[in-house]
User: Fold these one by one.
Assistant:
Number 1:
Amino acid sequence: MKQDNTIKMKALRKYLDKIKPNFQKGGKLHKFHSTFDALETFLYVPNKVTHVGAHIRDAVDMKRTMIIVVMALVPTLLFGMWNVGFQYYKSIGQDPGFWSVFFFGFLKVLPIVIVSYVAGLTVEFIFAQFRGHEVNEGFLVSGMLIPLTLPPNIPLWMVAIATIFAVIFGKEVFGGTGMNIFNPALLARAFLFFAYPAQMSGDLVWTADLIGNKMLVDGFSGATSLSLAAAASIEPNLSKATEIIHKIPDIWTLFVGTIPGSIGETSKLAILIGAGILAFTGIASLRIMLSAVVGGLTMAYIFNLAGSNVYMQLPPYQHLLMGGFLFAVVFMATDPVSAAQTPTGKIIYGFLVGMFSILIRVINPAYPEGAMLAVLFMNCFAPLIDHYVVESHIKRRLKRAKQKSIA
């Protein structure tokens, strides 16, 4: 079997080498060279080498970096598929078994993933052809992140529009992969949140389709933990507010993730597995992750000291397990392009992401998922943070050099 696969790969390589001159300069299909290069790079390791200057050679190129991130997202994707089915059958009072539950969620989530990749890559290919440059692998991650931040009932045409918007206005207008200011996946979610709030908020959007044809069992609301907390914070009657806040699932349930929510955000266990992969491989910054957690805990503790309502009185650690906080911290805030770059800047950046996430969700019930806005907000200030960190280092070194010269 292994020998047969080797023969097939060699035959494919030989065929690509045969048709490659048609896509090179002077060939009849030269205008499609970006498309051919993208396909060849996807199938084989590029044979390009540097010609001038000093360069650091590393086996981990952009393609492998993006593939590792996608691998880190797989646990959240698989659990999200199962949870979509679980929430649906729970809403109608049935339990058909693990594989039936997973298969239902698989059929709901897979079209969202496919539409995200097709819409985004189509725009990427069009811009690559128009500009005459290579198709970058950056969308391999964005194409997976976008579906994981959405509710399972989102219409597919909205997924396509949001993805196209994110690629054009989040990446291409800035020059493409590596030049974007904002995280494209979060930009897509923000676009949908403000453009189509009815499909991105409420209770029933978190429970998969077919609900209109079934009778919900008594006691099932589909409310997320954040929506319950937000409702409790604006309830004037203290006893009713306390009753609402007690409906938030227990810590273990929040950690495992058998709760309503966006496809990829519910299971903190799956997210932590992904965080371990990213941290072990060095793809994502552990500084940002840890500092964001510390920032979130700090802000939650400050609210505990204030204690103006039942939401502010929640234990700080519970805030980390509610909503998409951990998902945003692990997979969004650590984006190497839109995050801070300096070691000290990463700590400041992550800490502020964590603080603003909790601040927004508690102070403004209209935006219960504060992590989205917090990361986008700090994306704006990441370059400024790095600037002041670098300037501070320069001033300190100049001061030290001046003192040595005097001595």
Number 2:
Amino acid sequence: MADWYVDSAATGTNAGTSWTNACTSFSQLLALGVPPVAGDRMFVHNTSSETYTAVQTLAFPGTEASPNQIYSTDTTNTPPNDTDLVAGATINMNTTGNLSITGSIYTWGLNLKIGNGATAQSVTLGQNLRAQVWDNLTIDLSGQTGTGTINLGVSGGGVLMLLAPTIKTNTGNILQNIVTTSLVRIKGGGMSGNYTNQFITLFTNSIGVCSIEGFDFSPLGANGGNRTIVAQGNNSAMYIKDCKLPATITLDAAGTSPQSLGLNNRTLWSRTDSTGSVNMFRLNDYAGLETRETSITRVGGGADFNSSLFSKKIVSTANVKYYMPFETIPMSIVNTATGSAKTVTVFGTINAGAVPNNDDIWLEVEYPKDSGDPLGGYVYDTKGSQTAPSISPLSSGSALASDGSTWNGGGSGVGWSPFKMTVSITPQLAGPITVRVYVAKTSTTYYIDPQPTIT
């Protein structure tokens, strides 16, 4: 493993072998007669600021087995150590050219400033299907005078981790967005800027799987405006957890095709809010929307960590079908008995004159069916004679059982029909049991108690 040095202000031989003889840019370093190889480390002075005026690809030689390491540091020590880490080394793109960074790398403290005074520029990380980790990264599109894009990965592959990133987009009336096209995980960090009355859609036209945790979206709502975090037609499976929101913002829009069967076109929010809520959840896809409801709740039913009753409000779209139902967020219940029959029950209510049929909404329970291994078995209470998880689409449904539970908010009053869904199982191993509710009736609203019972 060799160490290399980059400093845009260096005046030595530019051989890249010391701070005195550092290369003045990454492109110069990668073009040396004997360039860095996989596994080498590269130190860039935190005051370094290299500039490109045309399309630029920085192709690092790192592989997943032997990635390159790139650190923004001061010049106190050679080689630098952990106390020398100082963020700030900057790569500037000052034209309409785009920046692409390829190869397996770990970076710390870099600043990618894209489109200083230019328009329609993009930055692409992980373009060649490699794994990249960007630690303490800043991506700055704020200097662009037009649209711009942050591309995370490429279609069909690549793994990207962004640790505590700072993302800056133009705070005026300019459309700039993030496109996730591989496996992307963002932990910590947040947006930066004082956003004016612009329209902004942050994640748009994406594919792949994206997990965002502990990210601060709140600057997007600093001065009002119409903003959406996840756009309609976004083809990613988006999981957004423990994040901070502005007080007013559009979270997402439903998917435009039934790709939720492959877990795409689904956006799942968990404990993400602008207030101190500990139990915010939201699932949105092509087939339906599931959110937390605090008015229509079952007396004695499920409560959050603050002992406040809530229910799962489920609203199906016109796109839902029996053989392509809306699959809601799973629930679980712990079972300790084995080898004996148990009944799992989930309670619900509907603002209608009759209880729903078992092909409108139904319950599926997954449980350990074998005593010698953890293989899951399935039981449901939908129509037909097939063995779950296979369904019976050509048979006729029948009414679910009515229920005498009392619901707050009028959920059991005149015009309402409380119901229950039950299945019988015989667990062979102790532990959690997974409970799922499916909805297949179009454009219908249900309220489901989040606390399954097992007796």
